[in-house]
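--- STAGE predict ---
source: upstream dedup step, 1 unique chain passed
mode: sequence only
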Amino acid sequence: SMALLRQTYLDAHWYRAQDPKPFTDRSLIALLATRELPQIFEARDWLSLLRADSVGDEFGIQFLIKGGGDEYRRIDAVRQSGAALILALDFPKPPDVADPWETRRVSLVDMKHWELAPGNPAAIAAAGIPFALTSAGDAENFWSNLRVAIERGLDESQALASLTTQPASMLGLSDRLGALKPGAIANVLITSKPLFDKGAVVEENWVQGKRFVLSPHPSDHAGRYELRVGEKSYELTVGGEPGKPEGTIPAPAAEPADGDPANEKSAADKIKVEIRFDDGLVSLRFAPAKDAAPIRLNGWISAGRWRGRGQLGDGSWVSWSAEPLPDSGDAAEAEDEDKDEEIAAEAGPITYPFAPYGWVEPPAAEPLLIKNATVWTLEDAGMIEGGDVLIRDGRIAAVGRGLTASEARVIDADGKHLTPGIIDEHAHIALSGVNDVAANSGMVRMEDVVDSEDVNIYRNLAGGVTAAQLLHGSANPIGGQSALVKLRWGALPREMLIEGADGFIKFALGENVKRSRNNASIRYPQSRMGVEQVFRDAFTQARDYRARWADYEALPRRERARTLPPRRDLALDAMVEILERERFITCHSYVQSEINMLMHVAEDFGFRVNTFTHILEGYKVADLMAAHGAGASTFADWWAYKWEVRYAIPYNPALMSEAGVTVAVNSDSREMSRRLNQEAAKAVKYGGMSEVEALKLVTLNPAKLLHLDDRMGSIREGKDADLVLWSDHPLSIDARPQTTLVDGVAYFDAERDRELRAQIRAERARLIEKLAKAKGKGNGEKGAGGKPPRVWQCDSLHGYEYLDVLEVRS
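--- STAGE serialize ---
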């Protein structure tokens, strides 16, 4: 979607410059004709808001953005976008927590959002972000929800501005709308009491100077009154529905007949009073007793008091009045308000990310000295027993023995092992989507859909992973551009990206691409021959595209200024980057014939395939891969999960390594990525690899494949301090990361993890208690549990793949 939006704006810019137009495109004509109007972008959450804003920044557009109601989670980033917001007051209903077993399915995030979402408008206002309110989403409860937002800190003047001056300003109509001032259109509201007061009713609505008198809401006059008619007094109670007021007075007690208690009439019985309100006037009609002639009263309302003249049942005229009585419901209403305040009070903290195990205060790097560890340098220094590593400013400052640093916090690692951080060359965690299905989707960028809130980031840190390549899936031959990230838990998506990293792109071969397991698919290609042709067509088009741009850029400056440039094509831009060796291919692959085919295609077009991933038949063509210069990122011992992996063997990593191929072991799984150290250890068992070379399969070798080995993958002075302190030998099944450092920051620590688990249990208990108090307050409930998080695999499309709910909700 983002790639299409970017391409559309590029096309509009190019089309606008064409004179005469080479063809008629009504969509682009319409887009260009309205380009000066406010452009409104609907974003479902704060992540989408930032994505929309990034597209706007690229093309010089400041979108008005309709938010998703969770902007409070990243209020600073939202403010930095510079966007004015449109907010719906569609607050979540409290989950049902009556059943303790079912309550386990309610995520902590959902409970915290229920608690904090009503404070979102106040947080936005406090941040100085301009916003307007809309009734979209929950129009029926708009006013009651707005009053809740005011209770949660939204100033009434800001609330009024969000309904008047601010939307007028956002739409460029401040000269005519939004304020009572000379020259403005006469759009006016008249209300029974201050607009945001409970029970306030819009009595008149003036539109362009035309008066519309609305039926008063009975709640405007609801309550108890002392009704005096001549010398008699009655207790009048007024209620009813909008436009249908209802009144009652107590019926008089009947005299018992011959002492028969059965003939007694309770004073609690009511007599109906007919009431009509009409533009400040009031009329009443009632019979004061059974079989009595009706009393008819007419009068007016002033300052909440009623008075006038009327006729008794005998036709005589009488004066009457009605004075409000103290409302017996005040105490109950005050009690309800106390409950509202209790529910609003003591809200839990906002964490970064807004998920379990998040930070209340983001962590920072500090000088560290790790002493007395078994240091696996994976460099010429080898393994250092009783070694020390000094970290300053997020980098490794020194490696050796007997190091000292007075300013550094010392970690005694006696009996523990220190290794470089694990790098997952092939991952799909922390993404909001993974596949597109066009034959060539080289225009899509995974960096656009990084999801920094995914708890799998934390879980991977708990497994010693510090960096990953987040890949497009394998549903098509030419996939999207990769995102290379460090697992900076709590950072924004853009802050997770590895600065200055080379660009990569996902290609794919085999069953997933030709859709052999989807009989309903009619998309080209549907054969392995067709897959090859997609590659050759794309690179042929890219070569021609590059030539057109080269011809244009070769023109003399004055002539180039008079010549229109070629049309930009984002997919072909990516193909040209591959031809120019500025973007590098990671290719999903299994079968030796296709592996060989893609190397031939690359050589025909003058570049090299960087990495074959999965590559379970790589042992058959390892010599050709080494000669070509391709690396391999494979599984340790996966096989038999589909037909084209039937020749997979667990000796594959070792055999490819022996042939001179740089080999890594990857996960392609949000679960296996947490134990890649154990996957690497399998190469010792099956392939006889040394422990050092086996550990390189998940550290230094993937760093080489991603062109990051000058910065990470081994322990050497000057490299990034991406390190893991293990409780045991890192290739042992008993090994557990004690601390995982990224850029010298301890994003995972086993001791802190234990504390966080206790805090999470306490926070859940607090919220469950608060939810229980909210039950039955008229704000609705939903069943416990919801859709679990999406779990992306290589071949995932747009549906959900569900995990065990209790596991993902932890």
